[in-house]
Design a protein that fits this description.
By secondary structure, the chain is an alpha+beta fold. It has two domains: about 40 residues; about 90 residues, Immunoglobulin-like. Helices cover about 25% and strands about 35% of the residues. It has four helices and seven strands, in the order αααβββββββα. The strands form two sheets. It has a four-stranded antiparallel beta sheet, with no helix packed on it. Strands 4-1-7 form a three-stranded mixed beta sheet. β5 and β6 form a beta hairpin. The relative contact order is 0.16.
Amino acid sequence: MPLEKSPSFEEVSSNNLRSPKPKKNNSPTRIALIIITLILLILLSATFMQDGLPTTLRRKGAISGAAVNEVGQAIPVEVIVYNTDIWIQSNTDGTFFIEGVPAGEQSIIVAFDRIAAEVKMGIKPGVENSLGTVVVPTELLEEATE
């Protein structure tokens, strides 16, 4: 429609050409949908607060394993995730568990005194990754002292 043929403001106002106001829809179905949506949001929020999920979202995992010497005796070791500030002292039986390890390829250093073994492994986020049993060659330490 050309501008010259369009109605003026007064004509529009006097002829009631305004669009009608939408009806409010407060039907029980709409209210039920709103309540269900709120419940789902609350449940979803509660799920995010559980221990495992934030770890998954941050892309971190955990490592477990054990350390033994070359004859299979359990030895207490230090376990270090290379290029991070993550390290722990194992239990006296050589077992260890580390949380918060960044996902992806990692070098894990298992050290006894001045001798260490390096194990490379892919860390999957949100799960416990088993390093298994790591053999640290403690006979090298005895040879070095002789």
